[in-house]
Amino acid sequence: MKQLQEKIIQEGKVLSDQVLKVDTFLNHQIDPPLMQAIGEEFAERFKGSGITKILTIESSGIAPSMMAGLILGVPVIFARKRKSVTMNDNLYTASVHSFTKNVTSDISVSKDFLKNGDVVLVIDDFLANGQAALGLLDILKQSGAELAGVGIVIEKGFQPGGEMLRGKGIRVESLAIVESLENGTVEFREEGVS
Ligand code: 5GP
User: Fold this and answer.
1) Would you tell me which CATH number, out of the four given (3.40.50.2000, 2.30.110.10, 3.40.190.10, 3.40.50.2020), belongs to the domain 2-145?
2) What share of the chain has pLDDT > 90, as a percent?
3) Which residue's CA is minimally distant from atom 19 of ligand 1?
């Protein structure tokens, strides 16, 4: 997605060979018109898949998911990283090791919102090692819902998550695939090459 690539080039900060900071438009401050374009792109790529719900993880997955949900006309559920006092035991839970924080934590989703018969699009901001995606897929499996595919805003193609998910036969649609962050420079994978 050209508009997203341009934004990453203009505003992304390469923190190391492994980590890209995009807190001017996705991870802290949010750019609504760009989120709208991202939502439209996800909706276009997954139209016709019969999606009934979008599942993401707080907090940075929520903005792109909301826009995709608005366009597809389906609810958006975000897995919570901390249990809320209003959440009871009626939960699906999974363990996720965080790439950026280097801690393992439980994520949870109320059983009220995911059911057998749902067709779910999983969305997240970044794909690195695929741990967040695996946690969400674990929750989907527990619920009996069907996975339509995984939509990622920025995939780091030099880390193993994308290959691991695609190797399981999962449809992964990434709007920008970063091939390298070496020498402080962002290099993208050409579109159509996976
Ligand atoms: P994974 O679970 O695929 O290893 O990592 C994905 C999660 O880690 C995303 O939800 C995202 O929050 C965070 N993450 C991974 N790599 C980066 C990165 O380079 N930059 C930022 N801002 N977040 C990242």
Assistant:
1) 3.40.50.2020
2) 90
3) 19
